[in-house]
Amino acid sequence: MSLPPGFLDELRTRSSLSQVVGRKVMWDQRKSNQGKGDMWAPCPFHQEKSASFHVDDRKGFYYCFGCHAKGDAISFVRETENVGFMEAVEILAREAGMPMPERDPRAAEKADKRSELAEVMELAVRWFRLQLKTGAAEESRAYLGRRGLDDAALERWEIGFAPDSWQGLWDALKGKNVSDELILGAGLAKPSTRGGKPYDTFRGRIMFPIRDARGRAIAFGGRAMDPNDNAKYLNSPETELFDKGRSLYNVKDARTAAGKGQPLLVAEGYMDVIALHSAGFEAAVAPLGTAITENQLAMLWRIDAEPIITLDGDTAGQRAAFRLIDLALPLLEAGRSLRFVMMPEGQDPDDLLKAAGAGAFQKLIDGALPMVQLLWQRETEGRVFDSPERKAALDKSLREKMMLIKDPSIRGHYGQEIKDLRWKLFRPQTGGRQAMARGKGKWQAAPRAPLPTTKSSVLAAATDANATEHLREAVILAAFLTCPQIIEDFESGLEAMTCTDPTHRTLRDIMLRNGPSGADALREKIFSALGPDALENLLSQRHVAITPCVRNPGNIEMASLTVAEELAKLEATRGLDAEIAEAVEDLSGVADEGVTWRLSEAARAADLAKRSGQEDKAEYDVGDNGARISKDERSAWDTLLGTINFSKSKGGG
Question: pTM score, two decimals?
Answer without folding.
Answer: 0.57
